[in-house]
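User: I've been going back and forth on whether these two constructs are worth ordering. Before I decide, could you fold them both?

Assistant: Sure. I'll take them in the order you sent them. The first construct and its structure tokens:
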Amino acid sequence: VQFVERGGGLVQAGGSLVLSCTASGFTLDYHVIGWFRQAPGKEREFVASVNWSGGSKYYADSVKGRFAISRDNAKNTVYLQMNSLKPEDTAVYFCAARMGLAPSGQHNDYDYWGQGTQVTVSS
């Protein structure tokens, strides 16, 4: 079971990035997928989550209206569109998967984790 995360990088405040998370070794069907992030010296925090069909999505208040999570089960990939980025969005972003029906903001609910991709937003 492995995730390949892509799309991180350096962007100016107000800019956009798209992160992708592609699974190998298993199918993402029937898995809830979440994005989390961790800044230096801080705890890992929830960003967004989507259910298996893509019909139910859940966002942290800090990113609501700016970020959008989506999935393409045919490509075994989940995306995180990040707009209007702020310096406080700087962190390592992780995707994670869990069996289940409903999105979750609790990192302990997730069984599989990617290695993370760095997002840096300059002011």
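The second construct, handled the same way:
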Amino acid sequence: QVQLQESGGGSVQAGGSLRLSCAASEYIYSSRCIGWFRQGPGKEREAVAVLYRDGSNTYYRESVKGRFTISQDNAKNTLYLQMNSLKPEDTAMYYCAAARVNDGYCYKNDYKYWGQGTQVPSLT
């Protein structure tokens, strides 16, 4: 059973926009933290944007602040990442992930549920 399914990646020019979607099962969508991570060529996986679903916190990586927006549609159990003003360094495989912790901070190791990823290829 696929619990997290990303979509929306694809070719785009530098300066362009993409919107990624992550459809989650109800169980996963109810996680304390759900967000977007990425792994570029030769790089480690890094957090891009994370929602604490109780509204206590929203995290954005410094390099995407003002360009990327994370949002959710609770009726559809879907998470989105609107990416504007894309730069070559945004090229990566983008993953949706969820951390089911009871409270407190969601550490990287808490993210146990991962989608298969959607590719944002080299920007032209």
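Notes on the second construct follow. The two ends are 36 Å apart (CA to CA). The longest strand covers residues 92-99.
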